[in-house]
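Now for one record:
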Amino acid sequence: MLDQISTKDYIIDVIKRYKMVGAPLAGITTPPFRQIIRIFFDGLIFTEMVSVEGIKRKIKSTLEYTKIYDFDRPIFIQLFGNNPESFYEAIKVCEEIASPDGYDLNAGCPVKKVIKSNAGSYLLKDLNNLKEIIKKMRKATNKPISVKTRLGWDNNSLVYKEILKICENEGVDILTMHARTKTEMFSGNIHYEALSELATLRKNITLIGNGNVIDRNSFERLLSTGVDAVMIGRGMMKSPWIFKAIKENISTHEYLSLSEKIDLIYKLLNLEKNYRNNYLDIVKKYIVWFLKGYKGSTELRKKIYQSNDENKMIKLLEEFVEQNS
């Protein structure tokens, strides 16, 4: 195990070497999906977001989200909440039971449920609390700390420069900026000029750009702003092989053959089956995402979502392969 000082150097080196990072995604970046990602990518990844309140209270179901496996590393635990002291206590608990390679603060999630708890993107409206949270995180660990956030609440309240200043002053190692505002959610144009501005202004922080990377062209466009690396979220969710596809400059649709994608679905099916009770719900999504664009994929989507039987779903997949052979 690397010591704490060399862990920071190692993580920064990994980020800059791969120039790609896998995003934390609620309900997606669970151990089964992370194991699939590791087939295609050895860089930095994240757990899905975990409540600091649940961690500090050592709620069993919450602690499950913090489990780190050998195949995971390098990996950060992403934390969300609004109480600075809870972040401190949560990190201390994680150090005892999980020992990740670092910690990430979710200051960008735009989902209503998270914002109602004054967490995620809500922190864009409360920079004083954001600062206090970071201070407590820095006090709790010498391991690398990252902050994942957005440009601001809306285009009339852009705070990305202020956030950069806070992060650098309080000892944050990595800043990930989703180049959209909270109100823009996951649609709208990427504000490349804001990332370029941050890249010019930053002094001593590793900068990661995030937003709408789905292929080599969109990857290179984001990288051209001067960021050190690019975080891939929904592109990874729908095509976990995207990292290799970008590296080799091959279309994500064409990178794997249909049979390879089917094999990947079966692997995920078995992993999810051993991980959660309602495994068919998430497997349905993977089937639809992975097989989009093939002949009959629209009809398959309808039939898959109507089915609640594993054997019937497998039969549908077999028929789909025959249809496309």
